[in-house]
Amino acid sequence: MAPRRIMTTDGSGDWITPYPASPSIDLIVKTRMFRSTLIATGVGDNADWVERVKEGWETKVIELLDAISNGTWTQRTIMAAIRSRCAEKPFKVHIFPREYHPKNTPSGGLNELEVIDQYLNSAADGNTRGGISVAPGGETAFIYFDPDPWRADSFMRQEAAIMNPTKFGGVGMEPEEVLFHELVHAVRRLRGVTDRTPTTTRDYVNLEEFTAVLVTNIAINEKKPFAQLRYGERTFIAMPEQYKTSAGFLRNTEHADLVKRIVTRDAPLSRVIANSPNSNPFNPLRRHLRGALWPAPKADW
User: Fold this and answer.
1) Contact 79, 22 (CB under 8 A)
2) What Cα–Cα distance (Å) separates residue 144 from each residue in 30, 101, 124, 178, 242?
3) What is the mean pLDDT of the chain?
4) Cα–Cα distance for residue pair 91/228, rounded to 1 Å
5) Distance CA 52, CA 23 (A)
6) What is the pTM of this model?
7) Where are the domains of the chain?
8) What is the pLDDT of residues 79-138, one digit of tens each?
9) Beta strands across the sheet bearing 123-126
């Protein structure tokens, strides 16, 4: 069945695709953005190609949203929280494609690392910009995301691993994981709990990024208890061995303080994630709220 599309009336050829499983999420399919990207990457602006790329992006994003909606406890918790908040308030989560302009990088597209950084990037935003947090009442969230560069077989990801392996180590880089990371940002923006207070550890950037990485790692660990977890926001490298369990993670004083601040900032959502029935070794929110009540593959948890 073809997705339901709401066509714009301005002659742009743009359309909005409501995500079938949740009226709170819309895909914004922008013709100009796809045409501009194809031109920037040397393909040109052939109208048929533009339409095929638009439809391909739409299909892939819907497939990823379906996987998250039917995924682990924590993934389903985030999706349910998005639906609930958008039912309470006139908010939405809008997902846009990313637009690439290699020539607008500082080197004008001549520095390959700058081009890679532009492609292997996604973002969540809203109407409130700058500052530490959004308004307490929350607001609509915007996600900018393209699944293709994040595929393990994509040229851009393979080139990134060669050119900058200390940053692009492959951990937390699957398209589903990247989109889920942005959905965590989105639900926090909807709930008005975004917090960009800088962290002491540079790799974490700020409390907001620490939260998105943490919750995504919990979801990854629910799916595959022995999978590598991502360390920090600035890189896609593996978590140090001593932090791979809830107990080990919370032995770090800064980690323990940041987790406490996450719970203080949004206790209801933290409690639902903590209530996961999965006996996976990494769920610091559960360890913080419920203590050492759960068995796990590693004895020190």
Assistant:
1) yes
2) 12, 15, 6, 11, 33
3) 92
4) 35
5) 25
6) 0.94
7) 9-289
8) 999 999 999 999 999 999 998 877 778 888 788 899 899 999 999 998 877 777 677 789
9) 6-7, 15-18, 25-29, 93-96, 141-144, 123-126
